[in-house]
Design a protein that fits this description.
about 70 residues, mainly alpha, two-stranded antiparallel sheet, about 50% helix
């Protein structure tokens, strides 16, 4: 079933029965990224998440130390 984003109706035809909007055609999936780019992005995630946790912990520690 298709879902009309304009009026919120579920329908099975090519055109929404309530507002008459034609359903958009399915787009092609994005091409796969280069393995080097994917590896670089994973390394960035593995570094950024612990860094963010340490930053939040440090800020909370400083706020607690000030009080």
């Amino acid at each position: 079933m298709k879902y009309c984003k304009k009026c919120g109706v579920l329908y099975t035809t090519d055109v929404c029965p309530k507002c008459g909007v034609v359903a958009p055609e399915a787009s092609e999936p994005a091409p796969a990224a280069a393995p080097k780019t994917v590896r670089r992005q994973w390394i960035a995630i593995l570094i950024a998440i612990p860094a963010a946790i340490l930053l939040i912990t440090g800020v909370l520690y400083l706020l607690k130390a000030i009080q």
